[in-house]
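Workshop exercise sheet. Pairs work together: one partner reads the sequence aloud, the other fills in the structure field after running the prediction. Swap roles for the next sheet.
Pair: D.N. / O.F.
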Amino acid sequence: MSSPTVPSVLFVCVHNAGRSQMAAAFLTHLAGDRVEVRSAGSAPADTVNPAVVDAMKEAGIDISAEVPKVLTDDAVQASDVVITMGCGDSCPVFPGKRYLDWRLDDPAGQGVDAVRPIRDEIQQRIRGLLAELGVQETA
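Structure field:
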């Protein structure tokens, strides 16, 4: 019996310092190794937003060691689903990929109080994505 193919999801935002980092962390946390997870930015920041790190820590997920990564064509081509979060035209588009655009407030320059509702909305969307992909939550 062959093992089923693991779906691959790429989260993209401009700086890869907030929304895409939270989404990738939630998907990794909730799906484990049943989904391949990537995140990247079209113009990556130097570090992940500290308020985002704190908000995720409150949710029991440590992303303090994460670093923003540059978006590459290879990352897009290797992904089944590409979810953009406000990067607009700077995201490459390849035929045959499934693209979703999650319109979410940008946590850049915001404190933890402003990041919490963004974090919670991302978590809900990740749960919906898992259901669409037919992947059972591990956590």
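Discussion prompt: Helices lie at 19-31, 50-58, 73-77, 112-133. What would you look at next?
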